[in-house]
Amino acid sequence: MGKFGELLASLENLTQITYLNLDGNHFSGKIPNVFYNLRNLILLGFSGNNFSGQIPPSIGNLTNLYGLDFSYNQLEGAIPSPENENGFASLSSVLLGYNLFKGTIPSWLYTLPSLVELDLSHNKFTGHIGEFQFDSLKKIDLSMNELHGSIPTSIFELVNLSSLKLFSNNLSGVLETSKFEKLRNLIDLDLSDNMLSLTMSVHSNSMLPKIQILYLSHNNISGMFSWNVGKETLFYMNLAYNSISGFEMLPWSNMHTLDLHSNLLQGPLPTPPNSTFFFSVSHNKLSGEISPLICKASSMGVLDLSHNNFGGMLPHCLGNFSKDLSVLNLRRNQFHGIIPQTFLKGNSIRTLDFNGNQLEGLVTRSLNICRELEVLDLGNNKINDTFPHWLGALPKLHVLVLHSNHFRGHIGFSKIESPFMGLRIIDLAHNDFEGDLPEMYLRSLEAIMNIDEGTMTREYMGETYYEDSTVVTIKGLELEFEKILNTFTTIDLSNNKFQGEIPECIGNLNSLRGLNLSHNYLTGHILLSLKNLKMLESLDLSSNKLSGRIPQELTSLMFLEVLNLSQNHLTSFIPQDSQFQTFGNDSYYGNSGLC
């Protein structure tokens, strides 16, 4: 049984004990059935351990119990019922979240006269939510289960309720906002990730006078959203992934986070409250120009207007209206004119994404004061400039995308001693760059060298409230990465006018996963040093003027999935070992000397 088992077994002799708290240890195994004689227990806490098996049935004998906490374990099976009808009359708190309980919610939990807090979240409960018999409840959390059916009527009678979390279930039905009339103490309402629809009443706007958090994302809410509750109190609101077509207004004076992305919003951009820190309307059907009024939101940290039909010129103030701005995402709209020309000194900008517009002119040199910049995506525009070598001084720049613009000329050299040391994703494809490949820059890409994935923490680029995304062409496909893993690396210099030989220093980039130098005028041999790129998954050297043999040593690239050497002047035998056995003729066509 072990010392801990003996300790628990000895508890049955402690008949006068009133508090037993074993929270936050690393205890494991089954909990022994030793509670028959502990009728004086008021508080029982076993949370934050690794207990398995069932809750002992002798718990039902604890008629004086006030608090019961078995959360954050691996418990399963049935939840013991009280020994008689009034057995848990004093029970105020039942916390069983983060376990493995299945089946329907025990009926006795709906009949506890003193229950204030009920947490059954992150389990596998099924069936309907029952009707609560008493109105003492202040907090209900049934989230992350498999419950279905409608929200019971009794929940809307719980006048003391301050927090209601039912997210990530299979709840359905039509919710009338007028039902919330009695919940005047409600602060936190989270019904997201269900199948609920909403019918709004004008008279319901005065309801929920204390509401601060309203999460209704991933539901079936459609039409105009006119439920303007909590005008002075609402702080967080998430309505993403619905079918909402518009708002009469955004009247909330203290709003911090307003997430409206992935709806059916139409018409002009609704101006966010001046207090807003996070504002996303991405993936909608909004149109028109961006009003300079948006720059009054001087505390804005994340502004995401991507994937809409906005047009016109960008307001001049867009780069310097908030010292807190870290993300400005305007991807895939129809903006024209120039990039914002001024940025605040000491700004917090981490991500600038202008991809997929019709912006033109030069890359403004004022970007060199954006010392926190990690992602700069100017791809798929009409920018006409030479290579912005001065960006190499930005110490945190990880992603640089200039894809499909009118960049021109030699990339040349930099006066900066070690430029672009942090770059992991480089996409200069589909421009008019010419001359030799930029050996100086390739030599200094330390972030693509010697990555030890065994010791580094694999995480996504961005913050907890916003994760960066990008579009890259790799393995012959254009892929949109909704999240960018910090170990992902790629270089795409294809479809330019580069000439000369491939520099030997590319062989030092031993953490590179994708390399595309296709559709240029490169000459010389395929480098033997490419064998050092042990992490390489995709290699495209097609449509150049490369000659000589395919190095047999490249067969050691065990992760190579896509190889394209077509349309060159290669000769001799095609290697047949290892990964090369999986490549078809289309990897080599247009090389008459290969056999």
Overall description:
This protein has 595 residues and is mostly beta strands. The chain is built from 2 helices and 49 strands. The strands form 9 sheets. It has a 22-stranded parallel β-sheet, with no helix packed on it. Strands 22-24-26-28-30-32 form a 6-stranded parallel β-sheet, with no helix packed on it.
Keyword list:
595 residues; 22-stranded parallel sheet
Taken from the alpha-carbon principal axes, the silhouette is globular
Cα distance spanning the termini: 70 Å
Determine the number of helices (DSSP H or I, runs of at least 4 residues).
2
- In percent, how helical is the residue content? under 10%
Unreliably modeled segments: none
Biggest β-sheet strands, sense, barrel? 22 strands, parallel
Q: What topology does this entry show?
A:
Layout: H1 2-9, E1 19-21, E2 28-30, E3 43-45, E4 50-53, E5 67-69, E6 74-75, E7 93-95, E8 102-103, E9 117-119, E10 124-127, E11 139-141, E12 146-149, E13 163-165, E14 170-176, E15 188-190, E16 195-199, E17 213-215, E18 222-225, E19 236-238, E20 243-247, E21 257-259, E22 266-267, E23 278-280, E24 285-288, E25 302-304, E26 309-313, E27 327-329, E28 334-337, E29 351-353, E30 358-361, E31 375-377, E32 382-383, E33 399-401, E34 408-410, E35 425-427, E36 432-436, H2 439-443, E37 462-463, E38 466-467, E39 470-474, E40 477-481, E41 490-492, E42 497-501, E43 514-516, E44 521-523, E45 538-540, E46 547-548, E47 562-564, E48 569-572, E49 593-594
Parallel strand pairs: 1-3, 2-4, 3-5, 4-6, 5-7, 7-9, 8-10, 9-11, 10-12, 11-13, 12-14, 13-15, 14-16, 15-17, 17-19, 18-20, 19-21, 21-23, 22-24, 23-25, 24-26, 25-27, 26-28, 27-29, 28-30, 29-31, 30-32, 31-33, 33-35, 34-36, 35-41, 36-42, 41-43, 42-44, 43-45, 45-47, 46-48, 48-49
Antiparallel strand pairs: 37-38, 39-40
